[in-house]
Amino acid sequence: MLKVSYSGIEGAFAHEAAKKMFPDALHVSSANFEQAYQKAYQGECDIAVLPIENSYAGAVEEVKKMLSRGEMEIISKMSLPIVQNLLGVRGSRINDIKTVVSQKKAIEQCDTYIRKNGYEIIEAVNTAVAARQVVSEGKMAVAAIASLETAALYGLKVLDEHINEKDDNITTFVAVSRNIK
């Protein structure tokens, strides 16, 4: 069976991209971009799915630097629409929220919304980790910024939808594999 590494945990946008690109593969979670890349490069996985650019936040420089090493080749590419949502624990209401937790780029994508509401910010490694953190803490005043898929996966309540600033927010993901010469 094809093994595909991605950065983050189940529910992260990279996981969603990996599932869409390789629906029948075994999807392997990685702690970060470098680990996802190394799993494919060292042969633990066949492919790594990595983000290279977001239409709002720009290039993912860390990934571009990894790809510039020339050790892996891009075998596939896809664009994934990114829609950020405010997700709280069951029983919470939008008026309860004082703090939001999410990944740095997601926070940037929702900056106007966050400032307008006066939320405090806590950064997480990725949006799915933020959602899992909100669930584990169980605080009514803390919400995650993540996808609707992540809300369903972790049992979070959608408090507000489509809170990112741009309607055309898209992340381009690439699938890379070891470049055998």
Average pLDDT works out at 95
The counted number of beta strands is: 11
Number of domains: 2
How many helices? The count is 7
Order of helices and strands: EHEHEEHEEEHHEHEHEE
What is the straight-line distance between the termini? 24 Å
State the major sheet.
6 strands, mixed
CATH arch. level architecture of the largest domain: 3-Layer(aba) Sandwich
Helix content: 25-40%
Radius of gyration, Cα only, in angstroms? 17 Å
Looking at CATH, the homologous superfamily of the largest domain is: Periplasmic binding protein-like II
Using the coordinates above, name the CATH class of the largest domain: Alpha Beta
Question: Structural class, from helix and strand content?
Answer: alpha/beta
| Proportion of residues in β-strands | 25-35%
- CATH fold-type name of the largest domain: D-Maltodextrin-Binding Protein, domain 2
Shape: elongated
Q: Which regions are unreliable across 5 or more consecutive residues at pLDDT < 50?
A: none
